[in-house]
Design goal:
The complex is a heterodimer of chains A (425) and B (317). With 425 residues, chain A is of the alpha/beta class. Chain A has two domains: 305 residues, Spore Coat Polysaccharide Biosynthesis Protein SpsA, Chain A (Alpha-Beta Complex), CATH 3.90.550; 109 residues. Chain A has 15 helices and nine strands. In chain A, strands 1, 2, 3, 4, 5, 6, 7, 8 and 9 form a nine-stranded mixed β-sheet that branches. Chain B folds into two domains: 210 residues, Spore Coat Polysaccharide Biosynthesis Protein SpsA, Chain A (Alpha-Beta Complex); 76 residues, no CATH class. Chain B has a nine-stranded mixed β-sheet, sandwiched between helices. Chain B is globular and about 60 Å long. The termini of chain B are far apart. The relative contact order of chain B is 0.12. Classes of the chains: A alpha/beta (425), B alpha/beta (317). Chains A and B meet through helix 3, helix 5, strand 5, strand 6 and strand 7 of A and helix 1 and strand 9 of B.
């Protein structure tokens, strides 16, 4: 994708985007959403605080701020997550570890873990306690404190490949101001409570699968979420200037909702590489298992409803894609009509054949009845023949009786209309 | 690692072998190793720590080349990590591509330390890596401890209770120096890049040592996925991996498997496999194959195309 509205003065673009953004902000009245749009009101920074990193394009800040969302209850996976960040080939980023509603000791434990890393990484990590709010509160707080030109997210069981940051940065350099997206693979893991020297561990239970599309397709994303939260980054300025905060009222799918609104405002540039891993837990705790199917369905419905209610902007090229889809739909419609006509014709054929079958059935029944009658006559004749042959009279006067008997039977048969049905010897 | 009271903590050497590794990657690697050593030293798990960097690249990466160890002065580039975690950093340009096995063997020559961490340069050590690996040696029967790789974990199975595993990946393992000396290091004549770690582990086990996996010892290994989720591998890796499929069963007295693998390579549609097959066939004809060991199949495991039971396969559909 190329830059959004090329040639338009930045200030004009921003003003225009503000107007568009107003329609795409989290639903007014939703719990926490209004606060989120205006800025988190507690913990790390009050509602009137200015964003920590200065203005958009602040040359002092790094390219990226990674918001690591944790409750501090999964130290093993959090350490893994941090390790994959420390190992990035591009170090033009900072990390905010956002500990949501920490309980006694968790904040200190997270800080201690961060402090064990080399200063060149640990020096770029801040640990922040976030109090209250929904699942998205840490992201809104983090975005306010961020100094990076972009913000990306990782949950505390997500992993990044070594080129995760580099792939985002390269995409952002190709399309400044756009949302940048990478492809995320999914891997099944199994919780192993207490297995790691008394602490909770886990093990990988299957190879990673690339189930999400390599590149972003806005139309496909309107149907379902195809980019997990660790698969995209947004310009930090857009979060606050354009109201592109995360909806705290959504218990799940806040990333889908956020990405769709961001995509409409800014467009999406795909890195087209698999650079992050999402863990699917066969047991243990994750949003997939914590929340019921009903919660997911309801969130899905809400996001769909919001998308339906809001104006949606597509990136350059979408018209052609829509035309292609419409053409495909047109073909499908025509094919559907053809198949319907064919079905009608076939139904008529079936009706005709069905009638013929009924008639044939009736005729067959009549034939069957004749066959049965003939069979009975045959049985009668055989019985009579056996009786006659068994009689003494027959045995004694066989020669004399035979012609007489045959003549009688023949006469009986002719009278009953059963000619030829009886035995002839 | 438990030790009698009053005994000083073991000394550690960390060694890696480069081949055309970008300087910034070496720097990142060194930072991580330094931090891991610093933490292990602070906890008393180890005493001194030295990093040895061998280089198989055509041109030297740092300083002058040649066979003499070139200490990297403390303070060169990244003073804090050298001063904190590592007593010394040595750089040695081999002047030839010795491969992984040959390079490590060359570095083993000068080893005076108690423990050696064999680790790839395309890795990033977790802060607790060294301390955790050393803890894995608490049992005196354990000779080699393997780290858990991220983001793509090795699928090899291990005993969930004891950690016992068939072999330790050469991407990152800690070994007692006496194990290295007892078995003579890697077999660089037979293995260049792949299979050397399997063979090293199996010979260590034949010598009576246990090889264990330790999941709390983390190492980031820069492996990546293709667009369809397959681990990306260079042609060199594929070539050496193909060679090992014949050499390893031959060495461990499974000539039936070796010949079957050779036949499969000869029948393979790709040119690389057939080239490797021709080379191996020539070696067999010339009587240039290794002498078989482990006749009773005590340590060697051949499970499908793997050298251990696997929990899953990256080749699964």
């Amino acid at each position: 994708m190329s830059a959004f509205l090329p040639g338009t003065p930045a200030a004009d673009t921003l003003e225009w985007l503000r107007e568009v953004a107003a329609a795409a902000r989290p639903a007014a009245g939703a719990a926490g959403a209004a606060d989120a749009a205006g800025g988190p009101g507690d913990a790390a920074g009050g509602p009137d605080d200015a964003p920590a990193g200065g203005q958009p394009g602040d040359a002092e800040g790094p390219f990226l701020t990674v918001l690591v969302r944790t409750q501090g209850t999964r130290p093993a996976t959090l350490e893994d997550t941090l390790l994959t960040l420390a190992a990035q080939t591009c170090d033009d980023f900072e990390v905010l570890v956002l500990v949501h509603d920490p309980v006694d000791g968790t904040l200190a434990a997270v800080e201690e873990t961060v402090g064990t890393f080399h200063p060149r990484f640990a020096g770029r990590v801040r640990v922040v306690a976030v109090e209250g709010g929904g699942r998205s509160r840490p992201l809104n707080v983090g975005a306010r404190l961020a100094r990076g030109r972009y913000v990306a997210m990782l949950d505390d069981d997500d992993l990044a490949f070594a080129h995760w940051v580099a792939s985002f940065k390269a995409a952002a350099e190709r399309a400044r101001g756009a949302v940048v997206r990478c492809c995320v693979a999914t891997q099944l893991v199994r919780a192993l409570p207490g297995a790691w020297g008394g602490t909770d561990g886990y093990e990988v239970a299957g190879r990673p699968h690339v189930d999400y599309p390599l590149t972003f397709d806005h139309l496909d994303h309107l149907v379902d979420n195809r980019t997990p939260n660790n698969g995209y980054a947004v310009p930090r300025a857009a979060v606050w200037d354009l109201g592109l905060t995360w909806d705290e009222s959504l218990p799940v799918l806040e990333d889908w909702d956020h990405l769709l609104r961001a995509a409409s405002l800014l467009g999406v540039e795909s890195a087209a590489t698999v650079s992050a891993l999402l863990r699917a837990w066969s047991e243990g705790s994750s949003s997939k298992t914590v929340h019921s199917e009903e919660v997911w369905k309801e969130a899905h419905r809400l996001v769909e409803e919001r998308q339906t209610a809001a104006p949606v902007l597509f990136a350059r090229g979408a018209a052609a894609a829509l035309r292609a889809r419409a053409a495909r739909d047109d073909v499908a419609v025509r094919e559907h009509a053809r198949l319907r006509a064919e079905a009608r014709h076939l139904r008529q054929v079936v009706d005709l054949l069905s009638g013929q079958l009924d008639e044939a059935g009736r005729r067959l029944e009549a034939v069957d009845e004749g066959v049965v009658a003939l069979r009975h006559a045959l049985e009668d004749a055989e019985a009579q023949l056996r009786a006659m042959r068994a009689s003494t009279t027959w045995r004694l006067g066989r020669a004399a009786q035979t012609p007489l008997s045959l003549a009688r039977r023949l006469a009986d048969s002719l009278r009953d209309g059963r000619a030829g049905s009886g035995p002839v010897t | 690692m438990t030790r009698p009271a009053g005994t000083p903590p073991p000394s550690l050497r960390v060694q890696t072998v480069l081949y055309r590794t970008p300087p910034e990657a070496v720097d990142r690697f060194r930072q991580a190793v330094s931090a891991a050593c610093a933490l292990a030293r602070r906890s008393g798990a180890i005493g001194s720590a030295t990093l040895w960097i061998g280089d198989s690249s055509p041109a030297p990466l740092v300083g002058a080349g040649g066979e003499s160890p070139v200490p990297v002065p403390t303070g060169a580039g990244a003073p804090e990590e050298v001063a904190d975690g590592l007593d010394q950093v040595h750089y040695l340009h081999f002047g030839a591509n010795l491969g992984s096995a040959g390079g490590h063997n060359r570095l083993f020559r000068d080893m005076t330390e108690d423990l050696v961490l064999v680790v790839n340069p395309d890795t990033y050590a977790a802060p607790r890596l060294v301390a955790e690996l050393v803890a894995g040696l608490a049992d005196p029967t354990v000779g080699v401890v393997e780290a858990r790789q991220l983001p793509l974990e090795h699928p090899k199975a291990h005993d969930p209770e004891t950690g016992d595993t068939s072999w330790a990946s050469g991407s990152c393992f800690l070994a007692r120096a006496q194990v290295v000396r007892a078995i003579g290091g890697f077999d660089a004549r037979l293995f260049f890049l792949h299979g050397d770690d399997v063979d090293f582990s199996w010979r260590a086990r034949l010598a009576g040592w246990r090889v264990v996996h330790r999941p709390t010892a983390r190492i980031f290994h820069d492996k990546r996925l293709s667009d369809d989720g397959v681990i990306l591998a260079g042609e060199g890796e594929l070539e050496h991996s193909a060679r090992v499929r014949v050499l390893l069963p031959w060495r461990y007295d499974r000539r039936d498997l070796a010949l079957a693998a050779l036949a499969a390579l000869e029948a393979a549609p790709d040119e690389l496999s057939r080239r490797v097959a021709a080379e191996l066939r020539a070696r067999i004809d010339a009587g240039d194959m290794p002498e078989a060991i482990d006749h009773d199949h005590v340590v060697a495991q051949f499970v499908r195309a793997d050298y251990a039971e696997h929990r899953f396969s990256y080749a699964d559909p």
